[in-house]
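Researcher: Please generate the 3D structure of the following complex. Treat every line as part of one assembly.
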Amino acid sequence: MVQNFKIGKYLILRRITQIGILLLFTFKSTEFILFGNLSSSVLLNSIKLSDPFAYLQIFLASFTLNFEFFLSALVIFLLYAVFLGRAFCAWVCPVNLITNFAELIRRYLKPAKLTNFKANTRYFLLFSFLLASFLFSEPSFEKISHIAIITRGIIFMQSSAIFVGILIFLADLFLQRNLVCSHLCPLGAFYSLISRYSLLKITYNLDKCTKCAKCINICPEPQVLNLVTKYSGKVLNPECIKCARCVDVCDDDAINFNLINFVKGKK
Amino acid sequence: MRRKFLVSVAKLVAIFAGIFSFLYLKKDENVSSSKKRLTTSFYLRPPGVLNEKHFLSSCIRCGACVKACPYNTLKLASFNDNASNGTPIFYASKIPCYLCDTLPCIAKCPSDALSKDILKQGIKSVNIGRAIVDESSCVAHFGIQCDACYRACPFLDKAIYLEYKRNERTNKHAMLVPKVNYDYCVGCGMCERACITKIPAISVLPSDFILGQRNDNYVKGWVEGDDSILKDVNTNKKLDKNKAMDYLNGAEF
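Model: Done. Output below.
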């Protein structure tokens, strides 16, 4: 029996932002809005943005402090650390499109689990990539980053993205559920580490919950929903990617964003 | 039963699709039309790269230089290129660097991988590579008048100049052969694209492939100021006077 989940407004919103950002990068006529790619870009011809993880690697590799470059990485760092949490993974990253599609197919095929990577593997990978950047004086994750390859593939029409995309798809489909995004990706680990104190959180209300477990079944990082059926409160685990699939699939209005509830309460 | 069958079929299809796409994608870049160099084993970096090591440690691979290039010269390296994945490169025989006055590729670089100093010093300080002439296939060396590279060069009569030579074969004609002056050549590749031969007789290679470096003790006495290379030379070398006078009796002979 295949479990069906309804498509909610947050899923549609997410797809629009994900694809919209990629399209803004791709076309020359929209360069004045967004120029560059996910590693480093210019917003509205004035605000420079850079990937803080890539900046950290480059800093460890070259030990040169370019103030403008540092500032551009700081903007993104603060955006996620203070406000959005690990929302990059669900709302911006193009790899999310591939892995979500693999998960959809997985629901129908139900293949056996072949590997058993733990969710904290990514923190070891994050650390080793930073160490390698320092040792070999080259941004080591940027060199092989699947996220950058897929993004460049879409923006610059490079064929190598198709190959890497198929590899990620196959790994997610046949090896383990959400293998790439929830177990191996060091960028996701980086955003998890910095977003512990971010303002945007998912809230859970035990009183409204009917314990259908749909949210746990659809969550790409099920360990973050450990409070479900136990107590009401915020999802404090920073590994939550704010994809809001749990908000979408919940039929009882037990799960929501804390900020939106706050606005509603005021009215 | 049916699900197991479906899973195994899907696995087979996926594996074959993966292998075929890999082989196909490996093949499609081997363009072999005329006037194109067949090898992609060497590549040229955009202007502003000081040296490969410094460049690789600070390039964020964002592609801003590629997007800023008005002539579509630059492209990001993919798996088919020898360069590190995602870094900007170009092949002079395909599209050369037009050496824009404002150097938009450097201006757009967020991470100082392309040195901003070049913007102040102007395009004469760019160091992409050096041009080298293959005399065995250059038609000017056959005695035919061709100055395509000479006229294409942005530093006309400086980076490439014509040397007048007597044609020893006919004994009455002149040969105007192109010569490259490495003090001016920046390696933009305009000459390589302009070359009329099937595979260009003049080509631009990265500077490391061509340029040597003289020892400090070879001073050009006839060039004013050339002895400045002796300024920081270590003169504290202690030579053994006795050994120099006594060397015939030493074990070396």
